[in-house]
Amino acid sequence: MSIKAQFNARLKNELGRKLLSSPATYRLAREVFIHTGNFAFKAKKKMTAMALEQAAEAYQRKRPVAWTSAFFPTEMFYFFDLIPFAPEVAAGTSAALDLSPRLLRHAESLGLSSDSCSFHRCAAAGMDLDYFPRPDFLMASAHLCDGAPRLFQYMARRSQKPLYLLDVPAGDDDRALHYVADQLAEIASDLEKKRGIKLTDDRIASVFEASNRARHFRIAVENLRTQVPTPLNGTEGLAYIYLTLLGQGHPETAAIYKILAGELKEAVSKNRREADKTDHERYRLIWLHLRPYYSSDLISYLEYELKMIIAAEEMNLVYWPPLDPEKPFVSLARKIILHPGLGPIERRLKFIVQNYHRYKAHGVIHFSHWGCRQSVGGILFLKKELQKRNIPFLAVDGDCIDETSFPWGQVLTRIDSFYEIMEELYA
């Protein structure tokens, strides 16, 4: 039995909750996986170490823990020396550790509807069963996801801790910009009082410098991935969504992307020196939304069996300008309201088409996570508009957390049909 299998088995017995909520578990896992794990890239090893250390700190609670929903600007946490914890990320981890079935059953016993997002059902159950660290603060953004604010309101009542809910309008004009900026300033002012930390110009500059450096090297990674064949496929690339959700403003994130850019640059040079590599990359894809976090053959089947390589992931692409420390809240607000998924769906379509051409892609695949209304609701529009542009599009219906809601047999049939379409178009 592998180390990972042994670790997973231990989590399922009566000591599982204690193991999962112990800082020592994550520090031991960090040492084991870092020294014995088979990492294709040094950058991923460094990111894994960072993620496990962040988890250990959240359970150790030497500093206040702030729960965050996806797309809340994490720079705010590093302003005030808070430990960020994303219950949605933890739900994905629970699926990878095969704990999500237990959490989903418990969520059902709590009365949470199976029609709601499995990320949020797992998060609610994880708090109720004490699998996840208790929050000192909760911060959620209302843009892109209606479920997260409701979840965080529930969690705030259960934990009796303050909730900061960022209300984000669909527009991106000056009125919307300052509306969001004023909320961020108000949140910062309240955190200054509760944390006893003055938000100085130096502190803002330090966090923004870390965030901007990460952005710089992240763009370098993006540019290297436009090369044919790509030096980084989706099997590896999808993992870096962690840094999108929890790493922006963290002092180590820029170093991770810098290492990755260096590794990819070497890979591109190696590809150029070697013979024809087209047998490893028959078609290139743009991946939209997330992926299944339980054990699944979906990505490996696409990339290793069919040679349909994911050249870029929607969630990993930079869409915002550098942050300005002279106007910190306006700058963060601009980052929030410029998200391609916010507002009219034409914005998302434009972003997809731009990157389809940028990455010399042959098709687009959308993983349609059950319960994610903001993403799945626009599928028909995207399909029709992309077809008008002769861009092959496939929507894969499934669930990121609940394996029972992922009909692999049906998905396999649709993927094979999609591949046949690609063969007809590009043969």
Summarize the structure in words.
The longest helix is centred in the middle third of the chain and has 25 residues, at 201-225. Helix content is 56%, strand content 10%. It is an alpha/beta fold and 427 residues long. The strands form two sheets. Strands 2-1-3-4 form a four-stranded parallel β-sheet, sandwiched between helices. Strands 6-5-7-8 form a four-stranded parallel β-sheet, sandwiched between helices. The chain has helices at 3-11, 16-20, 23-36, 42-60, 75-79, 87-96, 100-109, 118-128, 147-159, 174-195, 201-225, 234-237, 241-246, 253-273, 298-305, 328-337, 345-358, 373-376, 379-388, 408-426; strands at residues 65-68, 83-85, 137-141, 163-166, 283-288, 308-313, 363-369, 393-398. β5, α15 (298-305) and β6 (308-313) form a beta-alpha-beta unit.
Task: Sum up the structure in keywords.
427 residues; globular; alpha/beta; four-stranded parallel sheet; 20 helices
Sequence-ordered SSE layout with sheet pairings:
Elements: H1 3-11, H2 16-20, H3 23-36, H4 42-60, E1 65-68, H5 75-79, E2 83-85, H6 87-96, H7 100-109, H8 118-128, E3 137-141, H9 147-159, E4 163-166, H10 174-195, H11 201-225, H12 234-237, H13 241-246, H14 253-273, E5 283-288, H15 298-305, E6 308-313, H16 328-337, H17 345-358, E7 363-369, H18 373-376, H19 379-388, E8 393-398, H20 408-426
Parallel strand pairs: 1-2, 1-3, 3-4, 5-6, 5-7, 7-8
Helix pairs in contact: 3-4, 4-14, 6-8, 7-8, 8-9, 10-16, 11-14
State mean pLDDT (0 to 100 scale): 94
Reported for the largest beta sheet, the result is: 4 strands, parallel
Q: Give the fraction of residues assigned to helices.
A: 55-70%
Rg from Cα? 21 Å
Strand percentage, roughly? 5-15%
What is the overall number of helices? 20
Question: Would you list the SSEs in sequence order as H and E?
Answer: HHHHEHEHHHEHEHHHHHEHEHHEHHEH
Strand order of the largest sheet: 2-1-3-4
Name the shape in a single word: globular
Judged by helices, strands and strand pairing, the structural class is alpha/beta
Weakly predicted, low-confidence segments: none
Strands, total number: 8
Termini separation comes to 44 Å
